[in-house]
C-alpha cells in the first residue's frame, strides 16, 4: 500500500517493496499453496520436496496506522491498495508516479478519475502482449498473476461525522 499526498511530493509507503525469493516463486509456480490454506498449515511443504512453506509465509500482517486527521488532504491525495500482481512488477515509486501523473491529467470534477487511475495501474502491471509475452516498461515481464488496484481518495477522511 502507498499513501501519495499529491502535488506536495510527499509519499509514505504503508508497506515495503518485497522481492520474491526463488523458493517462494517455486512454491507459487508449483501451485503448492493457496493463501487461506498456507496461513494455517504449519507442516505444509513444497510439492515433491522437503522445503517447508512456513518460513516464507507469515500469518502476522504488517500494520501501519495513518492518522487521517493529522493532514489536510486534497483531491490528489490517495491511498493505493493492490494485490501482489501489481506490486510484483511495479515499485512503490513507479505506482506513485503513475497515479500522480494520471490524476494531474484528469478533470478534478470527474467522478470516475480514481477508478480510471486504478484501471491504468492494472494495465501498466499487465503490460503489452509482444512476441516474447506480456511486457511492461524496459521490456520487463508483465504480471502473470491476478491484478487488482484500488485508488482511495483521502480528502474525505478529514471530515468529522
From TrEMBL:
Pfam families according to UniProt: PP2C
SUPFAM superfamilies per record: PP2C-like
Coiled coil: none
GO MF assignments: [pyruvate dehydrogenase (acetyl-transferring)]-phosphatase activity
GO cellular component: mitochondrion
Domain PPM-type phosphatase: 1-154
Location of the region described as Disordered in the Swiss-Prot/TrEMBL record: 1-23
Cleaved signal peptide residues: none
Name of the protein described by the UniProt record: Protein phosphatase 1H
Amino acid at each position: 500500500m502507498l499513501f501519495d499526498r499529491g502535488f506536495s511530493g510527499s509519499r509514505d509507503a504503508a508497506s515495503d517493496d518485497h522481492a520474491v525469493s526463488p523458493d517462494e516463486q517455486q512454491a507459487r509456480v508449483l501451485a503448492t499453496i493457496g493463501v487461506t490454506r498456507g496461513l494455517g498449515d504449519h507442516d505444509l511443504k513444497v510439492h515433491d520436496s522437503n522445503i517447508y512453506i512456513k518460513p516464507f509465509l507469515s500469518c502476522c500482517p504488517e500494520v501501519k496506522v495513518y492518522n487521517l486527521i493529522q493532514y489536510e488532504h486534497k483531491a490528489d491525495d490517495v491511498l493505493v491498495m493492490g494485490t501482489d500482481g501489481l506490486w510484483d512488477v511495479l515499485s512503490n515509486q513507479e505506482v506513485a508516479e503513475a497515479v500522480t501523473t494520471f490524476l494531474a491529467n484528469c478533470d478534478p470534477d470527474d467522478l470516475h478519475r480514481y477508478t480510471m487511475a486504478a484501471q491504468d495501474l492494472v494495465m501498466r502491471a499487465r503490460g503489452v502482449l509482444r512476441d516474447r509475452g506480456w511486457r511492461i516498461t524496459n521490456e520487463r515481464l508483465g504480471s502473470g498473476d491476478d491484478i487488482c488496484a484500488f485508488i482511495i481518495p483521502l480528502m474525505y477522511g478529514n471530515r468529522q461525522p
